[in-house]
Design brief:
alpha/beta; Cobalt-precorrin-4 Transmethylase, domain 1; Rossmann fold
Length: about 325
């Protein structure tokens, strides 16, 4: 069966992910000669098993709780952000810290703090249990309400309808965010929030690129490389499926099942913002063995964003 592969561009690593990975690499590389002490990372630095396993092999130790990190050790906070409680725990343990929180996530934290200081109730659109959500809600736990669905938006109660703000997780689907925010705005007409939304540029660009594969270039099947716990990767699969394609999320090329491609003349390929490019190229090679005769890049945006690594801090 012959078919064409359509590669979405942009895809894969975003500036925030590159910064986070580079932060861990710098912490590992800057150890003194002969110093084999590990660099601790609170939570997976980014949601990709291949990336995490590579850093683990180089000496990074991943933990879920700051209390698992020995006093005085070097610790990196993941790209997803942390709450003030975690910062206090790190300071109490005398940790040398590097904060790899994506600057776009940090912007959401700052907005929540500003609204909270002015006495607003903040309606935060996101997914329960995601580390980004836990970090943001920890900034003002008494004033932030989590909104996961339109149903939540329809029934949430606030103490003062004239002092309501909203913010969103950065890795959501634009369509999902729009529907929920429209419901909130209908209930709270004076609600304030980000004019352009909190969904990050990379998330928007990758969703736009996947949509183009299906709606403009006729991809009948879309393969998204990303980890199951990657929010933005899951959203890419959903965008492709909503546009009418058969869409699958896979971690690497050997997870591809040949019957997924049945009857397809055009197969789209994208990758979540935490997925390294070598996994994309591995998938392309696997597709060639299954009948791909042509590989085309479909570019919808050019990205040139760069975030510098953070400084080392005590606590």
């Amino acid at each position: 069966m012959a078919f064409t592969v359509l590669l979405a561009a942009p895809r894969g690593f975003c500036a925030g992910v590159e910064r986070a990975i580079r932060t861990v690499e710098l912490a590992l590389d800057n150890r003194a000669p002969g110093d084999a002490r590990p660099v601790y990372v609170r939570h997976e630095i980014v949601h990709n098993k291949v990336v995490v396993d590579d850093l683990r092999a180089r000496g990074a130790v991943f933990v879920e709780d700051t209390r698992e990190i020995p006093a005085g050790a070097t610790a990196v906070f993941s790209a997803h952000g942390i709450s003030p409680t975690v910062r206090k725990e790190a300071a109490a343990r005398g940790l040398m810290t590097l904060d790899a929180t994506c600057p776009l996530v940090s912007r959401v934290h700052a907005a929540v703090l500003r609204y909270a200081a002015r006495g607003y109730t903040i309606l935060f659109v996101g997914h329960a249990g995601h580390p980004e959500v836990e970090g943001v809600m920890g900034e003002a736990p008494d004033q932030v309400r989590l909104i996961q669905t339109i149903a939540d938006a329809s029934r949430v109660e606030v103490p003062d309808e004239g002092r309501v703000a909203y913010a969103t997780q950065t890795t959501l689907s634009l369509d999902d965010v729009s529907a929920i925010v429209d419901t909130l705005r209908a209930r709270f007409p004076s609600m304030v929030g980000p004019e352009s939304g909190d969904v990050c540029y990379a998330t928007q660009n990758r969703q736009e690129a996947v949509l183009a594969l299906v709606s403009q270039h006729g991809a009948e099947v879309v393969l998204v490389l990303g980890s199951p716990n990657s929010s933005n990767s899951n959203r890419l699969r959903e965008v492709a499926e909503s546009a009418g394609a058969r869409a699958y999320l896979l971690g690497r090329a050997d997870e591809l099942q040949a019957d997924w491609l049945a009857g397809a003349n055009r197969v789209g390929v994208s990758a979540g913002a935490s997925t390294p490019e070598h996994l994309v190229q591995g998938l392309v090679e696997r597709l060639r063995t299954l009948g791909a005769t042509d590989v085309q890049t479909v570019e919808t945006r050019v990205e040139d964003v760069f975030f510098a690594p953070p400084p080392v801090r005590r606590g």
